[in-house]
UniProtKB/TrEMBL annotation, chain A:
One Pfam family linked to the record: NADHdh
Keywords recorded for this protein, A-Z: Membrane, Transmembrane, Transmembrane helix
Location of this chain's protein in the cell: Membrane
GO cellular component, one term: plasma membrane
Lineage: Bacteria, Bacillati, Bacillota, Clostridia, Halanaerobiales
Entry protein name: Membrane bound protein complex subunit mbxM
TrEMBL record, chain B:
Gene Ontology annotations for the cellular component aspect, listed alphabetically: plasma membrane
Origin organism lineage: Bacteria, Bacillati, Bacillota, Clostridia, Halanaerobiales
Record protein name field: Membrane bound protein complex subunit mbxG
Species this protein is from: Halanaerobium kushneri
Record keyword Transmembrane helix present: yes
Gene3D superfamilies listed in its UniProt record: 1.10.287.3510
Intracellular or extracellular location(s): Cell membrane
Pfam families in the record: Oxidored_q2 (PF00420)
Domain of life of the source: Bacteria
Membrane topology: Multi-pass membrane protein
Keywords in alphabetical order: Cell membrane, Membrane, Transmembrane, Transmembrane helix
TrEMBL record, chain C:
Domain of life (superkingdom): Bacteria
One cellular component (GO) term of this entry: plasma membrane
Pfam family, one: Proton_antipo_M
Record keywords, A-Z: Cell membrane, Membrane, Oxidoreductase, Transmembrane, Transmembrane helix
Membrane-crossing segments per the record: 6-21, 28-46, 66-91, 103-122, 128-146, 158-178, 198-223, 235-256, 276-297, 304-323, 335-355, 367-388, 408-428, 449-470, 503-524, 603-620
Protein name (Swiss-Prot/TrEMBL): NADH-quinone oxidoreductase subunit M
InterPro entries: ComplexI-like_HydComp, NADH_UbQ_OxRdtase, ND/Mrp_TM
GO terms (BP aspect): ATP synthesis coupled electron transport
NCBIfam families with a match to the protein in the record: PRK08668.1
Organism per entry: Halanaerobium kushneri
Ranges of residues in domain NADH:quinone oxidoreductase/Mrp antiporter transmembrane: 122-420
From TrEMBL, chain D:
Pfam families linked to this entry: Proton_antipo_M (PF00361)
Mode of membrane association: Multi-pass membrane protein
Lineage: Bacteria, Bacillati, Bacillota, Clostridia, Halanaerobiales
Source organism of the structure: Halanaerobium kushneri
GO molecular function, one term: NADH dehydrogenase (ubiquinone) activity
Signal sequence coordinates: none
Transmembrane segments: 6-24, 31-52, 72-94, 106-123, 129-146, 158-178, 198-222, 234-255, 267-285, 292-311, 323-341, 362-383, 398-416, 436-454
Family that this chain belongs to: Belongs to the CPA3 antiporters (TC 2.A.63) subunit D family.
The NADH:quinone oxidoreductase/Mrp antiporter transmembrane domain, residue ranges: 124-410
Gene Ontology cellular component annotations, sorted alphabetically: plasma membrane
InterPro entries associated with the record: CPA3_Na-H_Antiporter_D, NADH_UbQ_OxRdtase, ND/Mrp_TM
Name of the protein: Membrane bound protein complex subunit mbxH
């Protein structure tokens, strides 16, 4: 019985921590982009204010499916959180978590998609269709990389892959397979919907895409979902390529570095059109990933 | 030489008749000419059949007042019996053919076979 | 004793036909009763693998014996057929009110069930062929009872393809019959193993032809789209649920019972897998890719789901062809799961068609408000199809991935990944265009489907989630099959399967997922109440839009993606077959024009020419 | 033991007294035709068991074998006679519902054609065979002319080709008579007369062309489509069901007794295969339903000739079984097609759309017969197709089997086009009133299902017939031995 309470406590703690960290990262990102564009930009804690404001305002809904979508999105993402080791905190180190995480992220995006399209706004459905197309683009190289890693280390759990890189930083996957790390980095940008690959929430073309209809607490929940997704993807990248970390502080520091690099990298490029985005993902990243995989298999 | 001629004249003649009839059927356009050449082929075959049964210097296979006993040399009677029936058949077919030609003439009002192509492929 | 499972449905078919003439519901009720009887008696048969039945017939100098026997593999397929036919019969009781051919439907449907059980219990080529032909013929009549003109052409193409393959099968079977003196599988297997590898491989490939056609594998999959798309709405679930599986059953028989793998053991291997079975796996991979790309393009929802069945078949073929224990159990799992969620999707679509009357996606929208249960059934089914964790679809795909990764087949894995990720796309398209988005004015007064159509959907939803959480139920029958076929078994517990490197626990995931969901729900309910607003009251960035028609994004949902594959889809395989038949017609035409020109002279000339030619030929010899 | 000659004598008697019956009352000719064919069937069944153990030989006119014309009725002849008289019987039932312009003359010729065909099948003498062939063809020429308009042209073309054929055959008889000195089939087969290879070759070819026209082989069968399309339905039924069967019997009898050498049989094999493929290809794109059925029966005849000429016992048995099945199925097809055409008022397939709902029995008959021909299990076509494939594989004629299967697939293509039009398309034209054909359709369907599910019914006569055809010796022994 105590164990369950301890579990639930740990459960809630991790959720709150990653929400806060995620929002912080979003604030930092806004700051960096502003600095690159020679302006001051909003204070780093701005996302916290936004979330509190949003939960205060009243919102409109378009029926049951709209609410169910928002809840499923946030719920799915929170559930994914517990399969990824954040530093030393690891709730469930079970087999097959790597593939599981990819599919659990899919639940979240499916829930969000269902809710927004349920709102009846055509711009939302256009945004969702673009998101799904782009997902197909970046998911393929990512799975090839995972295929190679699982085959190489003969374990399909994130914890196992992390342990495999223990010892000196030399045998981090970043240095063992630099090409694969680079491809994973590009895919990371795509996954997070950062600048060059953000045609799905293109403000100018389709009125910020899927989130167009959600205001008030719905927008708040979607923001929280965004923040946790950032944390998950970064944590995954750090675990797989930067050898994870003993305690949470180093882990957050590594995530911060990757996040800053990603934002800077992102703010330099204009937006890809959807089919060019897919073509780009399938040309270079997929090619390099396959070469790397062949190298590992043979 | 003589008996060779004698021997082969009948066969040669009938084969020739058949070939002429065949040529007639294949090339003539007029339907009645086709029927005539058909009859020609029939007579050719009948001639050949009768020639088969020929025995030198024997009399016709008919028992009548002149020849009672059957010991005398007869020409082989069987081909002649065959020819009898085949002549009957030939005339029957010819009659039927002419009736059909009349009917076709009513409809197509021409005797030229190449024009009568109501039934294509 | 086994024969009454085959001949009771066939006999009932005629009774159903006669009764249905008088009252339209009688046929479907009889089908439901018969399939219920079948399901009960077949499940009672579980475990007794020794029942065999055979009767022989000496027909004009041929001693032929017909053998029927039960084994785990055939038992599973028989139970699946019976289960899916109950659900469809229940569903069609009142979904066929205004269906012109409902008595023909029930007649043929019952005969198909009987012949399918016959196929599955057959242990020799001739019985298999007889029931196979019976099934092909009756399904031909059923498909052509679908949509007006297109169903006819689809059934026509289907019957020619499967009849050609079936005749090739008959020729190979008779060839073996002449060598071994009997049609039975076992004697054929011994003969094939002993025979020279090249010839027996050729024979086995010809024997597997009808199964490749029926399973819709790559080169011969052209009939699937039209047949499923245009078949009557109640028959599509059966067609793509069960009929495709019979092709897979045939492939398993060819691979294992006719010892195809033993024969090709010593041929050149690629990464430890004989090249021929790798070729089959590659065929499966290509089927996945073509099926997915073409599914994304479709505007007609039934055709879209038909293509998705083709691509899911690809998974099963890959699983079987790589011949590893994990691979085989993965494909058997996926086979059962695919049957379940694919028939749910088709039943949900049939309910939508029953209410709206059209299958074109862009003519519908916003049906969630009018048909919530159908939406729920469709949602669970597509979550399973896309392979998202709490449902059974994920488990079978995960096991197949484990099998692929364990042996390191990169290209097959890429095709499998592509298939499953892209399935999110084509699965979401009907969801958003049919159920979500704007509700069209003409569909305002649509009611939910009657109770009898709801029950099958509810049962199927429960089964999806049940097998999603407890895959152990499926695993014990699959292990018996692997044992029977001589493949090592995969160890498992009620809720977890032992993968290549570590066990997979589905119950745990279900709990965590619901925990996350509850946290989000709490967060949602604490916040302020929100005001319900109509569908048209949305942010349209300044434009003033009144009618729902122009406010619903449905037509060419993934246009950018399709543009990438426009040229590939353009030269689809069907025109290859079309040109083939056109040449056949032109050759016939040419001969006809030349020879039968109606001129009497030519006919007379031909007879003389025949005489002259044959005389010359005789003269030379 | 009723004397078998009655089978030829009674129909001829009845046919020539038909005008008198007509004067007595209008309906009588139809009934008389029905009764005579029924009588024939009774006579055949009476002798059935007796023939099964040993063939019956009847010397006409009391002379001994080599001189007299004798009838040789073995199991093979019995089977063929049953087929001919059976189809005549069913067609005369069908005729009950039809009325023709000069009906007494029609039934006169109808009985004549049955008598001629039965005679062809039973005779043991070569010239007698020629006479019966001529009787049948003359009756056929005149019968086709009954449908008016185009049928004259069809019958004229058939007459000319038939005339040429009879000339060739007469020549053949002349040559054999000159070489052997006797006309009795057994006598010719026994004697060593035909040794000279050139003469043998020429006579074989002459007979091939003479009888080939009746057996509808490739270059000689261009009269078939015109005749079957233009002639009245009953005539095309009797022609495709009975007369072509008699033609094939005669061809087989001549070639297996007089020219048993495999080199001659190969001619038949190649001609049959060409007829099969050509018939199917041309039938595939016919627009007129009767022409399609004509080409299809032409192709099936080619198939039967090809299979029989394989020469092995299994092949002959398969060929004969296919012959029986084909006759039953083709008669049902022609009867149903006849009703469908009179209902739609045109022979074009497209106009038959949707008739399935209106003309139930005719459409049902057509579908069952089509499925029978295509070899659907539990129907008679399936078993004969199975036997054909296994016997041709046995004689390791690999190419022929592939050809047969390809033909079967093409057959499926064009038959199903019609079946789909009947049932699954909506009605285009208003339906005219037509004759009720339930009895013949029911009878034939029973036969199709009966033979399909329980082929043993016909297994025993088939085996004996095939055996009789194959070994010449026993044929010669029974005929000459009796001397």
């Amino acid at each position: 019985m105590i164990d369950i309470i301890y579990r639930i406590g740990h459960f809630v703690l991790i959720t709150v921590f990653s929400m806060a960290l995620g929002l912080l990262f979003m604030g930092i990102a806004r700051k960096i982009v502003a600095r690159i564009q020679k302006r001051y930009g909003p204070p780093v804690y701005q996302p916290y204010l936004d979330v509190l404001k949003l939960f205060g305002k009243d919102a409109i809904t378009h029926g049951f499916i709209f609410d169910f979508g928002a809840i499923m999105a946030l719920g799915g993402v929170i559930a994914t959180l517990f399969f990824i080791p954040l530093g030393s905190w690891q709730l469930y180190s079970m087999e097959g978590t790597v593939i599981l995480v990819i599919y659990l992220l899919a639940i979240a995006s499916l829930g969000m998609a269902m809710g927004t399209v349920g709102s009846g706004n055509p711009q939302a459905s256009v945004g969702i269709s673009r998101a799904l197309m782009q997902m197909l683009g970046y998911e393929l190289p990512y799975l090839v990389i995972l295929f190679a890693l699982i085959y190489r280390y003969q374990t399909s759990s994130v914890w196992g892959l992390m342990q495999a890189q223990a010892g000196s930083f030399l045998n981090w996957n970043l240095f063992a397979y630099p090409l694969m790390a680079a491809v994973a980095f590009v895919v990371l940008i795509g996954m997070m919907g950062k600048k060059p690959f953000d045609s799905m929430i293109a403000p100018s073309e389709i009125g910020s895409g899927p989130v167009v209809e959600s205001g008030g607490k719905y927008l708040g929940m979607l923001l929280l979902q965004k923040s946790i997704t950032i944390i998950i993807e970064l944590a995954l990248y750090v675990n797989l390529f930067l050898g994870g970390a003993e305690n949470i502080l180093i882990f957050t520091f590594k995530m911060l570095i990757v996040w800053v690099l990603a934002t800077m990298f992102g703010s330099l490029f204009p937006r890809f059109r959807i089919e060019d985005g897919i073509k780009f993902f399938w040309k270079w990243p997929l090619g390099i990933a396959i070469l790397q995989a062949i190298y590992i298999i043979t | 030489m003589l008996n060779f001629l004698e021997e082969w004249s009948f066969f040669g003649g009938s084969i020739l008749l058949i070939l002429i009839g065949l040529y007639g059927v294949i090339t003539r356009k007029n339907m009645i000419k086709i029927l005539i050449s058909l009859a020609l082929m029939d007579t050719g075959v009948n001639l050949m059949l009768v020639a088969l049964g020929y025995v030198k210097a024997a009399n016709a296979p008919i028992l009548n007042s002149v020849v009672q006993t059957n010991t005398a040399a007869f020409v082989d009677p069987i081909p002649q019996a065959l020819v009898l029936t085949s002549i009957v058949i030939g005339t029957a077919v010819l009659g039927l053919g002419l009736a059909l030609v009349i009917k076709i003439y009513d409809k197509f009002s021409t005797l030229d076979i190449s024009k009568i192509r109501g039934l294509k492929w | 004793m086994l024969t009454n499972y085959i001949f009771i449905p066939i006999a009932a078919a005629f009774i159903a036909y006669i009764l249905n003439k008088r009252n339209r519901k009688a046929g479907a009720v009889i089908t439901a009763l018969v399939s219920a009887y079948l399901l009960l008696s077949l499940t009672a048969l579980y475990g007794r693998w020794d029942i065999t039945q055979s009767f022989n017939l000496s027909l004009m100098g041929y001693k032929i014996d017909f053998l029927l026997a039960v084994n785990p593999l055939s038992w599973l397929f028989a139970v699946m057929t019976a289960a899916i036919s109950i659900l469809i019969a229940l569903f069609s009781i009142n979904s066929q009110e205004n269906f012109k051919f409902s008595s023909v439907f029930n007649l043929n449907f019952l005969i198909i069930i009987g012949s399918m059980i016959g196929i599955v219990f057959a242990r020799d080529f001739l019985t298999l062929f007889i029931f196979w032909e019976l099934m092909t013929w009756t399904s031909f009549y059923l498909i052509s009872a679908g949509k007006k003109k297109m169903a006819g052409r689809a059934a026509y193409r289907y019957i020619i393809l499967s009849a050609g393959a079936a005749y090739a099968f008959l020729m190979a079977a008779i060839f073996i019959f002449q060598q071994t003196g009997s049609f039975a599988f076992d004697s054929a297997a011994e003969f094939l193993v002993a025979n020279s590898p090249a010839q027996s491989i050729m024979l086995l490939l010809v024997i597997s032809l009808p199964f490749i056609v029926k399973a819709g594998i790559f080169p011969l999959h052209i009939w699937v789209k039209d047949a499923h798309g245009n078949a009557p709405k109640e028959f599509s679930p059966f067609l793509s649920g069960m009929m495709l599986k019979i092709g897979i059953y045939g492939m398993i028989v060819v691979f294992y019972q006719l010892s195809f793998f033993k024969i090709i053991e010593n041929t050149i291997a690629y990464r430890g897998l004989p090249l021929l079975s790798y070729l089959f796996a590659l065929l499966g991979a290509v089927t996945i890719i073509t099926g997915t790309i073409l599914a994304i393009r479709q505007e007609d929802m039934k055709k879209l789901v038909a293509y998705s069945s083709i691509s899911q078949m690809g998974y099963i073929i890959i699983g079987i062809a790589i011949a590893t224990p994990l691979g085989f159990s993965g494909s058997m799992l996926h086979l059962m799961n695919h049957l379940i969620f694919k028939s749910t999707i088709f039943l949900a679509l049939a309910a939508v068609i029953y209410r709206t009357g059209t299958t074109k996606m862009y003519e519908m929208g916003g049906l969630i408000f009018r048909m919530p249960l159908t939406f729920a059934a469709y949602l669970t089914a597509i979550i399973a199809l896309a392979g998202i964790p709490p449902t059974n679809g994920f488990i079978s795909k995960w096991v197949i991935y484990q099998a692929l990764i364990e042996k390191g087949y990169l290209f097959l894995a890429i095709a499998a990944f592509f298939g499953s990720i892209a399935s999110f796309m084509y699965v979401f398209k009907p969801l958003s265009t049919v159920f979500l988005g704007q509700l069209k004015p003409q569909h305002q007064n649509i009611k939910e489907v009657p109770l009898l159509m709801k029950i099958p959907m509810l049962i199927l939803i429960l089964v999806i989630v049940l097998f999603g959480v407890f895959p152990g139920i499926q695993m014990n029958i699959i292990n018996q099959i692997s044992g029977y076929l001589g493949i090592e078994t995969v160890n498992y517990t009620l809720y977890s399967i032992q993968g290549a490197n570590g066990a997979w626990n589905s119950l745990l995931i279900f709990n965590i997922f619901s925990a996350g969901f509850i946290i989000a729900l709490l967060l949602f309910s604490f916040a302020k109440k929100s005001k319900l607003v109509g569908l048209l009251d949305t942010y349209s960035s300044g434009e003033y839009i009144t009618d729902a028609e122009s406010y619903h994004y449905a037509y060419q949902y993934y246009r950018p993606f399709d543009r990438l594959f426009d040229n590939l889809a353009a030269k689809s395989l069907t025109d290859f077959y079309e040109t083939l038949t056109k040449n056949l017609v032109r050759s016939g035409e040419g001969l006809r024009r030349a020879l039968a020109a109606g001129k009497l002279q030519n006919y007379a000339l031909y007879s003389v020419l025949l005489f002259v030619i044959l005389a010359a030929v005789g003269w030379i010899i | 033991m009723v004397n078998l000659t009655l089978i030829i004598a009674i129909p001829l008697l009845m046919s020539f007294t038909m005008p008198i019956f007509k004067m007595l009352n209008q309906k009588l000719p139809k009934v008389i035709a029905l009764l005579t064919t029924a009588f024939n069937l009774l006579v055949l069944t009476a002798n059935f068991s007796q023939i099964m153990d040993s063939a019956i030989i009847i010397e006409l006119g009391g002379w001994q074998a080599p001189l007299a014309i004798n009838l040789y009725v073995g199991p093979l002849a019995l089977l063929a006679a049953f087929l001919i008289n059976g189809s005549a019987f069913i067609l005369s039932i069908y005729n009950l519902t039809q009325d023709y312009k000069f009906d007494d003359k029609f039934y006169l010729l109808f009985l004549m054609i049955t008598a001629g065909a039965s005679g062809m099948v039973m005779t043991g003498d070569l010239f007698n065979l020629f006479v019966f062939i001529e009787i049948t063809s003359i009756a056929a020429y005149s019968l086709t002319a009954f449908a008016g308009r185009d049928s004259y042209e069809a019958s004229f073309k058939y007459l000319v080709i038939g005339g040429i054929g009879s000339v060739f055959m007469l020549l053949g008889i002349g040559f054999t008579y000159s070489a052997v000195g006797s006309l009795n089939l057994a006598e010719i087969a026994a004697s060593a007369g035909l040794i000279n290879p050139l003469l043998l070759q020429i006579t074989a070819l002459l007979f091939l062309i003479g009888v080939g026209i009746e057996a509808e082989l490739f270059p000689l069968n261009f009269w078939v489509p015109d005749l079957y399309t233009e002639a009245p339905t009953a005539v095309s039924g009797i022609m495709s069901g009975a007369v072509s069967a008699a033609g094939i019997y005669a061809l087989a009898r001549i070639f297996f007794t007089l020219f048993p050498a495999q080199s001659f049989l190969n001619y038949l094999l190649y001609l049959g295969a060409i007829t099969l493929i050509l018939g199917e290809l041309i039938a595939y794109q016919q627009k007129n339903i009767k022409r399609m059925l004509a080409y299809s029966s032409l192709a099936q005849m080619g198939l039967i000739v090809a299979v029989i000429s394989l020469g092995t016992e299994g092949a002959v048995r398969a060929g004969l079984f296919q012959l029986v099945n084909h006759s039953i199925l083709k008669i049902l097809l022609f009867i149903s097609a006849g009703v469908l055409i009179s209902a739609a008022g045109s022979k074009n397939i497209d106009d038959l759309a949707g008739l399935g709902s209106k003309k139930k029995t005719a459409a049902f008959g057509f579908t069952i017969a089509a499925m029978g021909i295509l070899g659907v299990p539990f129907l008679n076509g399936f078993i004969s197709k199975f036997m054909i494939i296994s016997s041709s594989l046995n004689a390791d004629q690999f190419l022929l089997t592939v050809l047969i299967l390809l033909a079967a697939v093409i057959e499926i293509a064009y038959y199903l086009k019609v079946v789909q039009k009947l049932y699954f398309e909506d009605l285009k034209i208003e339906v005219k009133k037509t004759a009720v054909i339930t009895i013949p359709v029911v009878l034939l369907t029973l036969m199709i299902f009966g033979l399909g599910i329980y082929p043993q019914l016909i297994a025993d006569p088939l085996e004996k017939a095939a055996a009789e055809l194959i070994n010449n010796g026993s044929y010669i022994m029974t005929v000459l031995g009796g001397m």
